[in-house]
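Reviewer 2 asked us to include a model.

Predict the structure of this chain.
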Amino acid sequence: MPKGMVYLVGAGPGNPELLTVRAKELIETAEVLVYDYLVHPAFTHLLSTSCEQICVGKRKGFHSKKQEEIQAILIAKANEGKRVVRLKGGDPFLFGRGGEEAMALASAGIEFEVIPGITAAMGASAFSGIPLTNRNTNATLVFVTGHEDPEKLDTTVDWESLPKKNSTICIYMGVANLDRIAERLRSGGFLEETPVVCVEWATMGHQRICRGKLGTISETAKAFDLKAPAIIIVGETAAMSEDLSWFEKKPLQGRKLVVTRSQGQASELSSMLEKLGAEVIGLPLITISGNVDKQTAADVFGEIASYDWLVFSSPNGVRYFFEAFFEKFEDIRSLGFLRIAAVGKSTAKEIKKFYVTTDLVPPEANAESLAEALVATDSLDSAKVLVVAGNLGRDVLIDKLEEARAIVDRFEVYKTEQTDLSENPAAKMFREQGADGILFTSSSGVRSFVDQAKHLQLSASALRPKTISIGPITSATMKQIGLPVDLEAKEASLDSLVDSVVRRFGK
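Predicted model (structure tokens):
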């Protein structure tokens, strides 16, 4: 069997949006993903369903694999002819032990490629408002590890010789040794008034910034309850954080929110919340896949031009309908002159991607409102209506249309199944950390959450989330199941849901 290929990929400082284009491409095509603890679980959403995932730990107090074992895994999987992505936090060659892995691969005759990532210090500086260099004050930049005990006789860091003037010192993995590091810097000639900023969980929604002076930073950090992972930045430009810290001003910065979503699908809601500064955990409670019966599709598309209304009840229905449509037709004009209705703005937005105009969108994003809006057009008597849905679609829409004397055909194009959350990285993060709130956008999401509760039990130290509903129908399901409704959006739309979250949790 021909040998495979290993890619040593930098995942960046944590924020999923800071992943490079090349890294995203490699993750999407990986056959094996070997990843560290600090890699955000959102990256695993990019994987194919057949990709083998291997978590190798790499955090203080928890090393599931030794470095030699990790290297052996990379070599073994490559020798199986696999396309292996070794995903590492930050940059592989900056305190990431990527050099050791590259040497092991080279010695074994395995081809490899190194894809750089945004290193933690650069992410911390940008998201805390600290220029690492400044033309007038800081012309030298030093990256140094604080993982070593500064009191060791054989330490490889010469703390006393670090540049004291016109320089910025970025210290990685130094929280546990902060007392001794500060003392060594002062004994080496650094002034006690030198500005120091410690950035905890840099670039993430729950990022925190501890600011102080070198002479008192130890006490300040203890009062702040500073914890790893954190980057320590020492130098004159650190003082600029007070004025330039743009990320702290976002209304949801510091909040952790859970969005229930589909396995392998990006969430529009997640994106909206992240832009407001929140850290989002995407719980893939369900898996959605195409489920089009060939004979049914042949019958539907054979008379597609005879329908008066084409009705979409979800964005997923739009995607899988047009996927099947373009397998049969080459031109969108083959739809004919039918009118199109969408259950809500998100579904209408998905329809627009196919350069098709939506003729009707109800004021509320639910089946009842959609049915009422269609009935109000006075166009349903003897009209042919095609309703595109999934296997769990509610019958209320079809029933109301038939009551209005429409001739309704149901076209099932996708199926919804529960995802196994027992080993899912996002579920693991939720169990360990909890969240400020969990957002439900559908009744099926509520049911899936409750059905899989055994895989979502929170640890004793985890934050207990408030439960948030998109609207009355979802709230009714929550109440029926016994789940409290702590917050409900004023309108059943994503915009209103986000607005409600900002009002409740925002700064």
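The longest helix spans residues 315-328. Residues 256-286+419-505 form a domain with the Rossmann fold fold (CATH 3.40.50.10090). We have added this to the supplementary material.
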